[in-house]
Design a protein that fits this description.
193 residues, alpha/beta, Rossmann fold
């Protein structure tokens, strides 16, 4: 049985290097005979604001329903996004806020501080771009975007293991280095990691 992968691209700009990384990863995964679907968050028509918090459920727009079906279908979630101000782009955070809901991604247990992890059995890989060295992002800032997406979202909902690959420093990278990074993304896709 071939692995089912959904690539979730969280960069709002289609001309960004993140789109090149997503394309390269997909190329590698297809070569490994994986089934691949994509979610390009920038293409979705939805309100990213969780307007009522968890007090009142907002109806999901058709694009969010479709995205959730892809997430449920997949064995492996590949998240590709830049780090902005230490975190995720606003549209990506809004996508998570609107979709990773009680009853969808996790379920609180009644009269308990614990919860059921409804995405157990899935794995993930976060591929993120930085405008600083990854060691600096980890050492000085404590890698907040990774803590948020890996620990406080994906692992919270049962997804594991969650691997992380950093590409940076993007703003100073020349074309030779960017080509090497694209080749690495394709190799990750071939390994289905």
């Amino acid at each position: 049985m071939h692995k089912k992968i959904v690539i979730i691209n969280g960069h709002p700009n289609k001309e960004s290097f993140n789109f090149g990384l997503a394309s390269s990863y997909k190329k590698g995964a297809v070569k490994s005979l994986a089934e691949v679907k994509e979610i390009v968050i920038a293409d979705l028509d939805f309100n990213p604001n969780l307007q009522f918090g968890y007090q009142k459920r907002m109806a999901l727009e058709p694009d969010l329903k479709d995205a959730w079906e892809k997430i449920k279908w997949a064995d492996h979630l590949v998240w590709i996004h830049p780090v902005w101000w230490g975190g995720l782009p606003a549209i990506t955070k809004g996508f998570i806020d609107r979709l990773f809901l009680p009853g969808f991604a996790f379920q609180p247990k009644e009269n308990s501080v614990w919860w059921d992890k409804l995405l157990s059995g899935k794995t993930a890989h976060i591929i993120t771009t930085l405008d600083q060295p990854s060691w600096y992002y980890w050492l000085v800032y404590g890698k907040p975007s990774v803590n948020q997406l890996k620990k406080a979202t994906l692992e919270f909902c049962g997804v594991k293991p969650v691997r992380v690959t950093y590409f940076g420093v993007v703003k100073t990278a020349n074309e030779t280095l960017k080509t090497k990074w694209l080749e690495k993304a394709e190799a990750l896709g071939k390994k289905l990691k």
